[in-house]
Write a structure and sequence with these properties.
Elements lengths: L14 E5 L6 E2 L2 E2 L3 H5 L1 H9 L3 E5 L16 H11 L3 E3 L6 H9 L5 E3 L7 H4 L3 H8 L4 E4 L10 H5 L6 E3 L1 H15 L5 E5 L8 H8 L4 E4 L3 H8 L14 H11 L5 E3 L3 E5 L9 E4 L8 E5 L1 H13 L2 E5 L12 H12 L3 E4 L2 H9 L8 E2 L4 H8 L4 H4 L4 H5 L1
Length: 398
């Protein structure tokens, strides 16, 4: 990795402002999925063991610059403390008197947490004054929040220009894995891109066409390509304004190294409800009164064959309406194929990470990214503000 990591800095006796992505689902005050908190434990543990006092900063939900009691980090601090077997002190504010008092009381190896950073309007505005207030709480800044690295916010980008900035263990691992997928994969490299809207994935598809050997397009996005090829898609979700874009991408694919593949069949139903009667049809035979809700068995078999023959597989976005049990079979079957493959497998975070977990094969996947939008933008080839702001290792050595 080209960026400075925590192994490159001395944190003994120093206060470290640690940006994590603990935006976890909470229901009735209880954390439903603590995967993101557990993923941060190696970084927190390494900093503590090296004699740092750790000041965690994270966001939760979208309070839009206002204090919202429903979005307090109290449950998050409590869960982090349970996982660390230590007390995690929660400040009553983000960067005010309460935060300063909490930080002053920390001793080497202690962990504290600031209140929800998005309670402050200066956070999402990347206000330099607010970034300096955050920076005043610590001596060193460590960004471990890959999931928010595509946001140029005060706690993800602004602070890195004020304090000596390094990448945490999780951030470094994400960058290493995704860089290897794009720049030095074991081939054949197979990419599977699903999801509902092609408008949010065009950059990814275009960038991958130059890099992968096989590019599968699934989910509702495939319907836009069906339409571009002159087929009917019934009542399926289709971004009408993207049909010409899909047509251009199909033409472009003919000149690229990769083979662009569309699902040869689909599961269709009258509507996207759990009780709807569903059946499989060929892609050119989608009835006018039905909608695509999942990939069909032939698609599962063909994707499975490509995955079995692959050296590396990267997958972003579900292939059906996986939230509804009746339409999750395709996504789960492909997840099973990845779990059995000898390839190095990478899941691109977001909703798909939850789907793979539900399928019971998460422990058999090479890497499950903690990013959603950040993973997509990285695969597009975009620079991530939260990464770009970190110090380069070579520059730091001079």
């Amino acid at each position: 990795m080209s960026k400075v990591g925590i192994d490159d800095i001395d944190v003994a006796g120093k206060r470290v402002l640690l940006r994590e992505d603990f935006n976890v689902p909470i229901r009735d005050g209880e954390i439903v999925d603590d995967r993101r908190i557990r993923a941060a434990l190696p970084t927190v543990g390494a900093l503590r063991s090296r004699g740092a006092s750790v000041v965690v900063v994270t966001h939760l939900g979208r309070p839009k610059g206002r204090r919202d009691p429903a979005l307090t980090l109290a449950p998050v601090a409590a869960r982090l403390g349970q996982l660390l077997h230590a007390t995690v002190h929660l400040a009553p504010d983000v960067a005010g008197d309460g935060a300063h008092a909490m930080v002053e009381a920390l001793r080497d190896g202690d962990v504290g947490m600031l209140e929800n950073v998005r309670f402050e309007p200066g956070e999402e505005q990347n206000d330099p004054a607010f970034a300096r207030r955050l920076a005043s709480l610590a001596d060193v800044y460590v960004n471990d929040a890959f999931g928010t690295a595509h946001r140029a916010h005060a706690s993800t980008e602004g602070v890195a220009h004020v304090l000596p900035a390094a990448a945490g263990t999780l951030m470094a691992h994400e960058l290493e894995v995704l860089s290897r997928v794009l720049d030095d994969p074991k081939r054949p490299l197979v990419a599977i891109i699903g999801g509902a809207k092609i408008s949010t994935k065009m950059g990814v598809l275009t960038n991958l066409l130059d890099r992968v050997d096989t590019l599968w397009v699934g989910g509702a996005m495939a319907c836009v390509f069906y339409r571009a090829l002159g087929a009917s898609t019934g009542r399926s979700l289709v971004e009408e304004d993207q049909i010409d874009t899909a047509r251009l991408l199909l033409r472009e694919a003919e000149t690229k190294r990769s083979t662009l593949k569309l699902p040869p069949d689909a599961v269709v139903a009258p509507d996207a409800t759990s009780g709807a009667a569903a059946r499989s049809v060929a892609w050119r035979e989608i009835p006018d009164d039905l909608m695509v809700v999942d990939i069909g068995p032939r698609t599962v078999a063909e994707v499975g064959h490509d995955v079995e023959e692959a050296g590396t597989v990267v997958w972003n976005g579900p292939l059906g309406i996986y939230e509804i049990e009746a339409f999750a079979a395709g996504t789960r079957a492909v997840a099973g194929a990845l779990s059995r493959s000898r390839a190095y497998t990478v899941i691109g975070g977001g909703d798909l990470a939850a789907a793979v977990d539900d399928a019971g094969v998460a422990d058999k996947i090479g890497h499950i990214s903690t990013g959603g939008g950040a993973t997509i933008e990285f695969l597009e080839g975009k620079a991530l503000p939260g990464v770009a702001a970190l110090r380069e290792r070579e520059a730091a050595r001079r």
